[in-house]
Amino acid sequence: MKKFICILISGLVLSACGQTEQETGTNISISIDFPAALGGEQDGRLLVMLSNNDRSEPRFQINPGPRGQLIYGKDVTDWQPDTAETIDSNHRGYPFADINDVPPGDYYVQAIINRYKDFNLSNGKVVSLPPDMGEGQQWNRKPGNFYSEPMKVTIGEGGTQNIQITMDQEIPPITPPEDTKYIKHIKMKSEMLSEFWGEDVELGAHVLLPHGFDEHPEAKYPLMIFHGHFPADFGGFSETPPDPDMEPTYSARFDIDGYNILQAQAAHDFYKMWTSDDFPRYIVIEIQHPTPYYDDSYAVNSASQGPYGDALTYELIPYIEEQFRGIGEGWSRFTYGGSTGGWEALAVQVFYPDEYNGTFAACPDPIDFRAYTALNIYEDKNAYYYDTDYKKTLRPGQRDYLGNVNYSLMDDNHLEAVIGSKGRSTRQYDIWEATYSPMGEDGYPVRLWDKITGEINPQVAEYWRENYDLRYIMERDWETIGPKLEGKIHIYTGDMDNYYLNNAVYLTEEFLESTTNPYYGGEVDYGDRAEHCWNGDHENGNGISRLNYNFMYLDKILKRIEESAPEGADLTSWRY
Question: Which of 7, 70, 91, 459 counts the most CB atoms within 10 A of its CB?
Fold first, then answer.
């Protein structure tokens, strides 16, 4: 009878029913405006963040992990200066979906708007997206975004409370890096991408030139292409040793004291190696190809982002080779990278098998969608929960090397849903959809699954399989592409990858080891208990090996060149 009464009068505050005043009597709203001095009407995603600490600004504390702080968001269109937009219980948040569920206490509150602009696509559709401003699609650091200084507030128990915020700050532009003797920075207009996006689109790269480049004008060089997230400058190379007065900092990720000093020393050690008399000469590039959806394009052609694969392979790379005397032939190009870069390094090798002569893919994003992190998109019905009769068990999203789960796959996606609608969070699952999905009628990527419920769309899953499942594509097309990939594929991952990426590698290895006519002739290797992003180094931990990408595969690359270069190829001009 008590339960029946609680149901009938559940709108009242009754301690006997297990309800609190916070659950039923709190009405929180946050009103935000910005002054006309910052600009005119705005489109974008308005975000409000609350943090229970002052370790850093709230905008830098948003993540799905155990220490992530609170965030709420809404789309705004034609928002006028000096007028308020309000976020309240009508707008979804994370980790508390309803802002009225925020526990009473003291918080630091901050607001920011990730500003959008309209893109008039070549197919006639118009989409409103956040343009990259040189920062690699980081909404909390994007130049031009308006934000407020953190303000301390107290959330009371029960009652109505309105918090008023003025965004009177604007994130300043980024100063571009300067050229040095060895490192050059280039940008070029892509005709292919400019046509797709309806406006000028540039591709960029940081280029590390060989020692002796100016003194050997007759030399032409092999090219190593480092794929990965948006690089602000060429990393891991420094002509100067570490400052002896540098204050050491601790890396929680790698559990290393003084990791900043270690990084600086490794960068200088690479410089000394690079300029030594007996070191092989080659060009290294780190490419910049951010899109309005992410910090890079995933280096392939896609419905919602355009022909990035063709633009990088047939526009940017030949441009760099022409500018800096690259050999300019497929046998002299190699790809490598980790995580996103690992997937990209393998994908361009598979999709453009004649244009590259080897790939070294470390901890790649899912390369077999039967193991798309912790689910099988072809057989599972729900992305967030395991298939069960009664109990709802969440799929894990991130773990440590002992298997301890820090957050679920649903957590990660629900956070994305707050940061941006229509795939505009500029985060991981949204960029996979922007890359792999067909374009919807509204011009935005079609969802693989419902962002809130996790229900999977099997038609979209099938589209992914036919166009971007790298293992499936290799198996489907091995008769034609197998001879072109023989000896070129090298894949490395830790067997305790934080995002379960090793599971897709296992499945891909099963296929590769079964190949005949020809046998794939490459390498798949695993790091025991190694987390994300193990890259094949059995001697050093991830914190060290990640600093060695630009030369750690060199012996295998040189051997590959000797074995596969065509007759008459230039094998000498760059070996001075």
Answer: 70
CB atoms within 10 A of CB 379: 11
C-alpha distance from residue 463 to each of 377, 389, 412, 447 (Å): 11, 29, 23, 12
At a CB cut-off of 8 Å and minimum separation 6, what does 438 contact?
Answer: 303, 445, 446, 460, 463
By residue range, what is the domain housing residue 209?
183-368+471-490+549-564
Q: Are 200 and 188 in contact (CB under 8 A)?
A: no
| Closest by Cα among 336, 361, 347 to 299 | 347
User: Closest Cα partner for 70 from 31, 110, 34, 33?
Assistant: 110
Give the rounded distance of the alpha carbon of 288 from its chain centre. Answer: 13
State the total domains in the chain: 3
The one-letter amino acid code at 326 reads G
Cα–Cα distance between 371 and 464 in angstroms, integer?
13
530 inside domain? no
* pTM of this structure: 0.93
Residues 313 and 384 in one domain: no
Other Cβ atoms less than 10 A from the Cβ of 348: the count is 24
Least Cα distance to 75 among 497, 444, 575, 477 occurs for 444
* Residues 344 and 236 both lie in one domain: yes
Assess contact for 240 and 349: CB atoms under 8 A.
no
Task: Write phi, then psi, for 476 (nearest 5 degrees).
Answer: -60, -40
Q: For residue 158, what pLDDT band results from cuts at 50, 70 and 90?
A: confident
